[in-house]
Design goal:
Oligomer: single chain
CATH superfamily: Gcn5-related N-acetyltransferase (GNAT)
Number of strands: 9
CATH class: Alpha Beta
Distance between the termini: 19 Å
Helix content: 10-25%
Order of helices and strands: EEHEEEHEHEEE
Radius of gyration: 15 Å
CATH topology: Aminopeptidase
Length: 153
């Protein structure tokens, strides 16, 4: 667990605690859309939350997955990265990912990757993630433009 100056705290959590934030930020608060991943409950999956006081403002989930960049290294896929609307741009998401990356390194991970929303690519690039050129695609779930991104740990 880590603590931010303004009472921001990062910790591992049960994935069910992340579903409301996932739905509100990533799925336009549509109650009909699933925000669960079949791997959520697996023991190898890691789920992180950022709390501002007692309010959940950041979610990030990592699942063991073969990297599309380097299939020979132990990798985790980031999914459901979400920062509540009024908490965006304040460094909370970066802090959650920094904490998660240190935990993943301890698990032996050497790379993380994601299908990053194109609207968030600037955020990821600013914290050391790289873009896989030519990997642009529409998400089958959201129909929004995404690009494969990764970071070596």
């Amino acid at each position: 667990m880590t603590e931010h100056d303004e009472g921001f705290e990062v910790c591992r959590v049960d994935p069910l605690k992340l579903h409301d934030l996932r739905r509100r930020v990533l799925r336009s608060n549509n109650p009909e859309v699933s925000v669960g991943d079949p791997r959520d409950g697996e023991s190898t999956s890691l789920h992180f939350a950022g709390y501002l006081g007692d309010r959940l403002v950041v979610s990030a989930s990592f699942f063991p997955s073969t990297s599309p960049v380097d299939p020979d290294v132990k990798s985790y896929q980031l999914r459901y990265m979400a920062t509540d609307f009024d908490a965006q741009g304040k460094g909370y998401g970066a802090e959650v990912l920094e904490f998660a990356e240190s935990q993943l390194r301890e698990q032996g991970a050497r790379q993380v990757w994601a299908n990053g929303r194109d609207t968030a690519l600037g955020f990821y690039r600013a914290i050391g993630w790289e873009i896989v050129e030519g990997s642009e695609h529409l998400s089958p779930e959201t129909k929004l433009p995404h690009t494969v991104i990764y970071k070596s740990l």
